[in-house]
Design a protein that fits this description.
This protein has about 80 residues and is an all-alpha fold. The chain has helices spanning about 1-5, 10-25, 35-55, 60-70.
């Protein structure tokens, strides 16, 4: 997903935020017990909202990005509702 968006679409700190969230979920075994993973998801969700509001990303693309990040985590994460 990051390769598709490219460096022209996202700043390095934004790319790092996305990678951090994906990494946090990748190494998460229980989202309810993992404060770091929940915090990373909150940060990347805010980023997706900011990118959408600034019209740098479409709402559909932001949802796809968040779905891709959630897919890195435990299967229980699919049951958690997202606001994006």
């Amino acid at each position: 997903m990051l390769r598709d968006i490219g460096p022209a679409g996202l700043w390095p700190r934004e790319q790092a935020c996305i990678r951090d969230a994906a990494d946090a979920l990748l190494f998460c075994h229980d989202i309810a017990a993992d404060d770091e993973a929940r915090a990373a998801i909150a940060v990347v969700t805010r980023l997706a909202d900011e990118l959408t509001q600034a019209e740098r990303m479409t709402p559909a693309r932001a949802r796809t990005l968040l779905d891709d990040i959630w897919a890195c985590g435990p299967t229980v994460a699919a049951d958690i509702c997202l606001a994006a």
